[in-house]
Amino acid sequence: MDDAVTNSPVPSVRSCRTGAWLVGARGSVATTAVLGAAAVRAGLAGPVGLVSELPSLAPAALPSLEDVVLGGHDVVVTGYRKRAEVLAAQGVVPRDLVVALGAELDAADADVVVPAAEPDQRRRVAALAAAMRDFHGRHDLDRLVVVDVSSTQPPLDTDDAELVTDLASPEAVRAAWDAGRSPLPASAEAVWAAYEAGAAVVAFTPSPGVGVPAVAELGRRAGVPWAGADGKTGETLLKSVLAPMFVQRALHVDSWSSFNILGGGDGQALADPVAARSKTATKAAALEAIVGRPVPGPLHIDYVADLGDWKTAMNHVGFTGFLGTRMQLQFTWQGCDSALAAPLVLDLVRLLAACADAGRSGAVPELGFFFKDPVGSHEHALAEQWHALLGLVDELAGRRP
Amino acid sequence: MDDAVTNSPVPSVRSCRTGAWLVGARGSVATTAVLGAAAVRAGLAGPVGLVSELPSLAPAALPSLEDVVLGGHDVVVTGYRKRAEVLAAQGVVPRDLVVALGAELDAADADVVVPAAEPDQRRRVAALAAAMRDFHGRHDLDRLVVVDVSSTQPPLDTDDAELVTDLASPEAVRAAWDAGRSPLPASAEAVWAAYEAGAAVVAFTPSPGVGVPAVAELGRRAGVPWAGADGKTGETLLKSVLAPMFVQRALHVDSWSSFNILGGGDGQALADPVAARSKTATKAAALEAIVGRPVPGPLHIDYVADLGDWKTAMNHVGFTGFLGTRMQLQFTWQGCDSALAAPLVLDLVRLLAACADAGRSGAVPELGFFFKDPVGSHEHALAEQWHALLGLVDELAGRRP
Amino acid sequence: MDDAVTNSPVPSVRSCRTGAWLVGARGSVATTAVLGAAAVRAGLAGPVGLVSELPSLAPAALPSLEDVVLGGHDVVVTGYRKRAEVLAAQGVVPRDLVVALGAELDAADADVVVPAAEPDQRRRVAALAAAMRDFHGRHDLDRLVVVDVSSTQPPLDTDDAELVTDLASPEAVRAAWDAGRSPLPASAEAVWAAYEAGAAVVAFTPSPGVGVPAVAELGRRAGVPWAGADGKTGETLLKSVLAPMFVQRALHVDSWSSFNILGGGDGQALADPVAARSKTATKAAALEAIVGRPVPGPLHIDYVADLGDWKTAMNHVGFTGFLGTRMQLQFTWQGCDSALAAPLVLDLVRLLAACADAGRSGAVPELGFFFKDPVGSHEHALAEQWHALLGLVDELAGRRP
Amino acid sequence: MDDAVTNSPVPSVRSCRTGAWLVGARGSVATTAVLGAAAVRAGLAGPVGLVSELPSLAPAALPSLEDVVLGGHDVVVTGYRKRAEVLAAQGVVPRDLVVALGAELDAADADVVVPAAEPDQRRRVAALAAAMRDFHGRHDLDRLVVVDVSSTQPPLDTDDAELVTDLASPEAVRAAWDAGRSPLPASAEAVWAAYEAGAAVVAFTPSPGVGVPAVAELGRRAGVPWAGADGKTGETLLKSVLAPMFVQRALHVDSWSSFNILGGGDGQALADPVAARSKTATKAAALEAIVGRPVPGPLHIDYVADLGDWKTAMNHVGFTGFLGTRMQLQFTWQGCDSALAAPLVLDLVRLLAACADAGRSGAVPELGFFFKDPVGSHEHALAEQWHALLGLVDELAGRRP
Lengths: 401, 401, 401, 401
Prior knowledge:
Rossmann fold; 14 helices; seven-stranded parallel sheet; globular; Myo-inos-1-P_Synthase_GAPDH (chains A, B, C, D); Myo-inos-1-P_Synthase (chains A, B, C, D); 42% helix; Dihydrodipicolinate Reductase, domain 2; four-stranded mixed sheet; NAD(P)-bd_dom_sf (chains A, B, C, D); 401 residues; 11 strands; homotetramer; Inositol-3-phosphate synthase (chains A, B, C, D)
């Protein structure tokens, strides 16, 4: 493999001033992304964790991190410096960086909007789209990519017939608005606003958004690309390499028990069983898709406050080999959620900006590599997703028409 | 992935009576292979564990297990039924199978040769080649594949200048014999004999054999294919999917600590630090090749008698992500060595027979999927090896000239 | 420690023909106990797993296993030989023992009663007491100990005021019967019958029984001893040694996450969240009692069919040391439930018979060593429970009046 | 258990100005102890990790941490503030404490002596004793306790007959000095000096010292108490609670495989196989003593640089239960060496000072609770050691004459 992480420079020649609009701009992932982008720009951090800096992706000539401007919106008002200090205290980011880049963090606060309270969904969405356009104009951007890194929200209630009808098309949504209803789930409002503002969209959470029929149709009409859903940073990442191994070796997976504990804001959100349903659904998808059938075994996500941003996954796999011999694999993944997710956010902004630049619109299945539940693709095996990503790199490099 | 293990029949149409000559024919792996092949033939065992029965390999039209005859040689004289009963007591194979297939096991004893004591290496090798030819003739075989599943032996002493000279070519070996020396390492004698007998060779252990220059040259002259080395059944199998994951995600592997405990004959052999050197060398190769640099961390193999054939690997990986955040992955693999290795032996016999049938000679790098230290290839990532294997299937299917 | 497991004989001089009446006599634990007792008597199994055979317990002069007769009742009719063969196939017990002791297993079937269907609780209980008395008489027993090893049942509904009133005293129970109600929970019927028959009782499950006020009062009036509740064989056993370690070292346990997966009958029963409530309550008790406060962290018990009788507990402990440094302990316990529980059942029968013989009545807190939720004691630390057990041994040895 | 860690104040009334002389005063453990003592005194850190602050130890009326003065010697000259900053960067201690207590750290440097190069052992020892007396006098101490927290050194070469003779008595040591030899191992020099200076000694490492015959005799003549050897902070701590559990439950431990990885200075010292021999010897002692026989299984200690002060122990225990059923326990301990060891150093200084105050001399076996290889005791089970410690508390409280 020629992709060992090195410090060798990667040419990034696509001249494309790119805006990244973070939905949930004050969260841990967003804060780490803002700090990290500043650190890389200042030469204080290397490319570790950034897929977009791997030699294999160099031919895509992605927009440089120098050319990426971060902004977004959040209901939280605490500034980046304060948020970053909290993360440093938890060991998520180095305190030295927070100290060295305090001015950059303070400056970044200027690009975070706190939406005004507005009961009318249509006006709320319009205000958001206006804020995005304003950000676009103020920074003289070539492209804007909206990334949802806000708290996970529950899946759509598909038993609600009126809701399903209201979300069938952009026209139906507007008709529902006319009738005084607010059909869009909260997580879809920013996506709708993004498409109204001509922005590409990354669904980094499992919340309903890019997959809602009306929203997807709006995106198609806007001619922008999108990618999702739900960043693959831990347990599912491991499943996406381990499950193919069992399949290719003809070993029968009898059960796969998945226990996740985490603290932090994400943990708190997932402690709500209704919100967690989106997450457990995307987490289960990979295994079933790779093994080709549902695999028995519990999947729990539990909030354990003292773990903070440290997500620990303990998995137990029971499998059968030749002549019925039963064997086991266990693993424990102790990952820092923000440290794993933040660079992928930057990767996706760069990649989706390049896709938009190259005229791609609609779901970009080749970005499934980054997601638990890839839109536009049924491929969950990481190695196959990696090859698809390299194919996209070839396309962006103009090597494939 | 469309390779979920199913019970659907796979067409095996290559009519090719194939002999499998097992070096170390009384060992656990060989005994499990003999029992397992009989069980599959009798319809008492399914395809689980057999890569060659996966739908993806069907186009290769491999010789059917019905057409595979197992024999070999060993210094041990205990019969298969007795050996299988011991394995059943350890939970390695089901006792029901041993009872049901007692007659088949007894019959298989007839094809195991105990070599006569013979101090002269040239004569020892010649006697072995004669035994192989006899087996070939007696069973009216189309092909013979010799598989080394004997105890691991130490690597060549490359500081021994005379030895290196003696092993430089077939002629040098013969000249050494003329001079009364025995240059071939014990593990290479059977390979030499195999090539003399026109057989293909699978090096399922890390012992020196197919890679010895004189031996490789003899193989080339014989026009037969070979594959190796050292079956990949546990810790290294996991490394070959986990290490690419770290690389493709741009995560920096700081250390990888590998602790292996196992009992049984293999464990006893590896308790000898000199013999273990072959094994630790092949085990280390994968990680370094995939990560692109040596990775710090101990690699121990320890003999723990009570584990029997159950090989337990405990690994600890320290890695760094974005902005220097340090994280950990641990895994424990509790595998049954024979249950994992035996079906691969049958897979390799079928695949190498098909390769021979298709006119392939020399090292077959596309079989690297099965090995810790693939001959003729520097690729260690399992997913890439799987694609190479599928390419070989295409070739065998006549879809690629 | 002078209690290393040895094969040295332990004097058992208390002449006391003891009956063991197993509630759930056909379950895995009961079957393993019946097979195991026969194996020890026949000299085919050693004392491993039997606490009552440790040198430290010799002074108690417990009734010999030779003098223990096993019987009981169950709705299941499958014979012991068949049940034992199933356990052997799962690796829970050695098949050789099942073959060698087939006659003994068949003979044991004669002492298992299948209760006739009887809708009236009073008559059901009376019939059970009669069956116990019959067993007592038929085998000319000195003592009878009833052991509940049946499926776990849900805790009492303490919100049901009428039920609480009905269970307040033996008289209240009888009045409820007169009024046509069936106040006793199913798990308490056998305990009631036991006390009616003058038998001692071991509550090896967390089901409501010995702790129900009316039942406890009946036991006190019967003057018999009892012990419970819920055999401590795995995760809680570990907690009862690890938690004191943290406390004695002044380390602060921040969270303790407990994940249990198991198959088998017990697993199926616990897959019912209502029944599982009894179990999770007893499991949580130990940790809180030892640490002195509730410890955050999830506690899951999940049914994973392929594990069979193999109970796997994966625990993650987050703890804080000096100056706030955060650390972790993880463990995985892979135990065979029946192999762990069955010898404790035999231990408890012998110990409780000796207690009865020595005139003890009421709860025996010194037997807390064996239980997750010791009746009559708030001590959960295993080492302290061990000392209490040794104190009981002293008492039984007549060394303490 | 009434020893839950709380913040309730513990009375410490023994008026006893106590000096702690740290051998290896600049190491991680010593630095953490100096910082931690200052933090507790300043009310910036609580009692977590300090056994001496548990309610159970209050009756001993140990000297208050207010009354403990830390000093010592080391060849390293880097000041405490700098050392503490490095530890903070590794997450071993909180940076806030280092900042807040910078002045106290700088002040502590005044009490650290860098010994002058001196080839003559007698003079080297005399200079050390003089430095200790000077420290004693300067701070007007009532008691001095010398604690060895320096790098682990190899065990004595008992095959060296002259050395054994030289170390047989204080007189023999002095005769050897007269003859120009330097018989004391480096680690024993400070112990000798301590006894010369009338100080008590804590052997926190496994290096030869308090156990050397001549040294022990000198200590007896000095009438001071000592304790050791080798602080029990991780793997062995766990063994000392888990092994008794197996024994008391009559479970047969078949194998115990112990894999330790650590970075830092301690890791580097132990990467030297000769020095490591002291450590592996003390580590093996506990298990054999508790189980009552040698337990098979490897014991490795490997240096893995990126782990820093984080000591990770991965253990695999194979054990047999009733009827021969084989089961497994695995655990992973991820501890911070300094955070675990430093408070024990402070505990031992307070306890040993109180022992001296109470007139104890010679080895104090009741302090075995803190050590891997307790001097003067064969008890390794933590719970028994805890009871012995409580007995010592009773004695110090004047409740036992």
